[in-house]
Amino acid sequence: MISVGATLLVILLLILGFPLWLVFLSAGFALLTLTGAGIPPDMLASRMFSSLNVYALLAVPGFIFAAELMVRGGMSNRLINWVTVLLGRVPGGVPVTTIVASEVFGAISGSSTATVAGIGKVLYPGLRQSGYGENFSLGLITSMGAIAVIVPPSITMILYGAVASVSVGDLFLAGIGPAILIGILITLYCIWYALRHSITSEAGKWDAAAVWRETKSAAWTLGAPVIIFGGIYSGFFTPTEASMVLSVYALIVTTCIYRDLSFKGVWEVAVEAALLTGKIFTIVAAASVFSVVLVIENIPDTMVGALTGWNMSPFMILLMLNLILLIAGMFMDPNSAIVVLVPLLLPIAVAAGIDMIHFGIIMTVNLAIGMFTPPFGLNLFVSTSIFNVSVGKVVRGVIPFILVYLVSLLVISYVPDISLWIPNALK
């Protein structure tokens, strides 16, 4: 009964519009009182602080600060211009450019909403002028923004690694295959769309001089992923150290080389990054209190026991976990969902024989889909604001891309090697 009360209390507080961190704290303290567990408040406070005393979490402020610097300091725009001039003249060039630019931009920014905003402002007019429908253009940009949750380095993966106690570096490697698969499937859909609607090729003369000019302009930006992945996988530094190195690199490039960002701008970026980091860490700390309730109530073990008693096959368990995550992603942002759901669902996945790294990727892809899935997908509202259109129009646009993502999710879920072959090959 207490577990049912916990669920109802959380739902009620969310409906009333309480902040997520306050929901966790209120529900946690109330339910601990009801259970009569006898845990003093100072121990709960200690639990909150200890939940943040995780080395991997130090990467969160580093990557957030670096991403804000690159977006505000012109590095992201140079990257988009480079991809555009490189791919914009091939058949189907504008959608392909949008897909590739989103993948690369997401790898640098790590932010789904920033990817929608950055890519959308530059490439949406080109999509429309090339003859692509409004719904298609809105859906492509809104859905491809979610790739930033999947392509490494991903804040969501960092949080999963911290909560599940698995290697963040392995998670980063495991995200490469799924990100490429999703990009390929969406590219095929875009080609089919162009053929079906008889959209003529916008191919033209390839301007080598323009390519060289934009390559030189974006050279320092292209150095960012080299630093991240080269440093991590050469063993020179850890993912956490990579976030700090990347921050220093982005600071030097934006202020001293490109000179697009003043020191006043750096201060504003630092404040924004600190506020966002504070929001994420507050949710993590508050969720740790709620997780105490789950442990006391023995909810994870009860769920594992129930599923074992039903004699469900690993195939059906994985399908059920995907459904739970898809529904959760419709109502929660990926970072909040990770800290809440990993303690509940990971024991089930492990009992079913699912690799913990593979399950982390499954969670990440599910929650990325939630970023543009009604009713509360954040990317939907970002697109509504940027393009000044109704939410309904954006929703109609993303529906085909949701289906493509779901096909990708099924392949990723039931073919583990797509996620695991790179980390296993490098062991």
Helicity range of the residues? over 70%
| Approximate shape | globular
Radius of gyration: 22 Å
How do the SSEs run, as a string of H and E? HHHHHHHHHHHHHHHHHHHHH
- Characterize the biggest β-sheet: none
The domain count comes to: 1
Total DSSP helices: 21
Give a short summary of the structure.
The protein has 427 residues and is mainly alpha-helical.
Task: Summarize the structure in words.
This is TRAP transporter large permease protein. Part of the tripartite ATP-independent periplasmic (TRAP) transport system. The complex comprises the extracytoplasmic solute receptor protein and the two transmembrane proteins. The protein is mainly alpha-helical and about 425 residues long. It has one domain (about 40-425). It is built from 21 helices and no strands. It has helices spanning about 1-15, 20-35, 40-50, 60-70, 75-85, 95-110, 110-130, 135-145, 145-150, 155-165, 170-195, 210-235, 240-255, 265-295, 300-310, 315-330, 335-350, 355-370, 380-385, 390-415, 415-425. Helix 10 packs across helix 17, helix 10 (about 155-165) crosses helix 18 (about 355-370) and helix 15 packs across helix 17 (about 335-350). The protein is globular.
